[in-house]
Amino acid sequence: MELDAFMELAGPPIGAAIAAYGDSVLTQAQDAAATATVGLGTRILQRVWNRRDQRQREDLETNVLEAAEEGAGADAQGALRQAVRRTLHQDPELLAELAALLARAQPAPVSIVVSGQGAVVNTGSNSGTMSSRTVVHRDGTR
Predict the structure, then answer these.
(1) Distance (Å, rounded) from C-alpha 110 to C-alpha 128?
(2) Within 10 A of 80 (CB to CB), how many other CB atoms are there?
(3) Which one is predicted more confidently, 2 or 132?
(4) I need a labelling partner for 127 at 20 to 30 A (CA). Which of 1, 52, 89, 115 fits?
(5) Which candidate, 102, 121, 125, places its Cα nearest to that of 112?
(6) How many degrees, rounded to 5, is the angle at CA 87 between CA 98 and CA 16?
């Protein structure tokens, strides 16, 4: 897997791990109740951290702390992704190892067909209202 493709796929699990564990993500024991995405992000960050020297680990810890403090802040998340990217660029073997983790974690595609007035589908999670709108034209067509 190419580094850019890996980073595109790894970003959400890494962000989920930061959101769940904050700056303790690098040393957090695997939580049995953690979701697959959080667990995957945690494993990615821990393996990257284990391949770094002491100074690089301190830098990564700083990136993780800043990302945890800013939550979904794009700048801190970007800095963390860059730190992961640098490690993987220098360690193609680790990239291949982590790419295999991602490949196993990808869910199978789902095909869902909905029909009928007001039909709505959500294949993920929703924390707000879902609605649909039907436009009825003067001639009665929808």
Answers:
(1) 23
(2) 25
(3) 2
(4) 115
(5) 121
(6) 55
